[in-house]
Amino acid sequence: MATLQHIRRRIASVHNTRKITKAMEMVAAAKLRRAQQRIESLRPYAMGTVEMMRDLATFAEDRRGYALLRENEGAGAEALLVVTGDRGLAGAFNANVLRHYFEFDHELRRREVATRLLVVGRKGLGTLRFRGDDVERSWTGLSDRPEYADAVAIAHHVTDLYTRAEVDRVHLVYNHFKSPLEQRVTDVVILPIEPQEVYRQEERQEKLPPVTYLYEPGEAAIFESLLPKYVEIAIFRALLESSASEQGARMTAMRNASESADEMVSTLTMQLNRARQASITQEILEVVAGAEALG
């Protein structure tokens, strides 16, 4: 049986650990509130931009005249932009994104398609380099408070890859924030910008004929300005979604750790009481045995 001193040391150690996890939970909750406010403010604008760009791309007269609209063929490679966090202690937050990448990379290799790997976050970068994966480009230090300038820098590299026809598609893999308890891994193709199908609201889904739009100051000027913005906003939204997801996952993980610490303290306290009772009983027996020997 463990000694009283050993049990007391374990209880003190667990108490200290609980203080750390409780503090981390409170910090993550504060960061989550700020991150959630930012993503909720951006979502309507991002969704409106995405819908507008897809509508414009659907009815563009010459899709091949714009590098971000036309489909590349024959590059034999696809780019994966994997968004992870800079720190751990967030449950399965980073592992879920990386697991999706491993499965997707395996599928690309099966199809004999090369992978151009781009990584955001120290945790993903460290894991992938440890596995020996070839990380072409990485960005770190963004997960706590990503800025739009960070998305612009990443988007510039991604669009360069696509406009030079070095990749056929660009995938964006990140954790979509639903609640502090739920984050869903999302994989979207941000390049090329896919047109959406437009249908009449009838029982028979009949495709509408093309519609001619009048562009001011002109189609070319609008696309040259808005197409890069579309990619920047898509990446910025992913960074904000991932940041909120990371804080939510960390808050939940630290809360679970604190609850586990409370349970462990209760168990150890029960062991301590039993050990003390056994020690007292042993001392009483020794006193009684000694008295009988003297009597």
Word description of this protein:
- With 295 residues, the protein is an alpha/beta fold.
- It has five helices and five strands.
- It has a five-stranded mixed beta sheet, with helices on both faces.
- Strand 4 and strand 5 (182-191) form a beta hairpin.
- Helix 1 (4-58) packs antiparallel against helix 5 (219-294) and helix 4 (148-163) crosses helix 5 (219-294).
CATH class of the largest domain: Alpha Beta
Put simply, the count of helices is 5
Output the CATH topology of the largest domain.
Pyruvate Kinase, Chain: A, domain 1
Under the CATH scheme, which architecture of the largest domain would be assigned? 3-Layer(aba) Sandwich
CATH superfamily of the largest domain: ATP synthase, F1 complex, gamma subunit
Q: What's the mean pLDDT score?
A: 84
Radius of gyration: 29 Å
Shape: elongated
Q: What structural class do the secondary elements suggest?
A: alpha/beta
Q: Major β-sheet, in short?
A: 5 strands, mixed
What's the N-to-C terminus distance? Answer: 33 Å
